[in-house]
Amino acid sequence: ECTAEGVTGSLFFYPRGSLITSYRTVRLQEITAEVPTGHVPRSMTVRLFGTLARSLHPGDTVTVSGVLLPVPAEGLRRLRMGLAQDTNFVAMSCSKRKEDYGSTCLTPEEQETLEQMMARDDFQDILTNSIAPEIFGHRDLKRALLLAMTGSVPRVL
């Protein structure tokens, strides 16, 4: 109750008159391939609202457009930070840069090269030798590792 302004009523939650939207906070991290050697990838907090909240999944490479907003600190943290504030990025649009596994397509040249390699009799030996080439021998272990990595029941990702 607020008696200073002469108001003595209480606040009540009215679900029918309330607008409830989807909300998600994500941490975006710089792509590790673009980070200079010896540096830590930078990260940023991004807030997603509405349909954007379900558009991103962990591991997606995305381009995000939006507004950078300051977020005031609360409590004792405000006293320690002074005028400095954290920043949050409110996303207005998101677009995926990396396609899903199911939509990955090979170019005709890659398809032809793959078919030529698969037609060879020593294809499995080539793949076996490509696993840990600096370790000499242990062909049976390398072949077992190859089959463990590639041989499985087909599944849809």
From TrEMBL:
An individual GO BP term: double-strand break repair via break-induced replication
InterPro entries per UniProt: MCM (IPR031327), MCM_dom (IPR001208), MCM_OB (IPR033762), NA-bd_OB-fold (IPR012340), P-loop_NTPase (IPR027417)
GO molecular function: ATP binding; single-stranded DNA binding; single-stranded DNA helicase activity
Gene3D superfamilies named among the record's database cross-references: Nucleic acid-binding proteins, P-loop containing nucleotide triphosphate hydrolases
Domain MCM C-terminal AAA(+) ATPase: from-to ranges: 111-155
KW Chloroplast (keyword) present: no
Record key words, sorted: ATP-binding, Nucleotide-binding
GO CC field: MCM complex; nucleus
Residue span, MCM OB domain: 9-71
Pfam family, one: MCM_OB
PANTHER family per UniProt: DNA REPLICATION LICENSING FACTOR MCM FAMILY MEMBER, DNA REPLICATION LICENSING FACTOR MCM7
Protein name: DNA replication licensing factor Mcm7
Organism: Kipferlia bialata
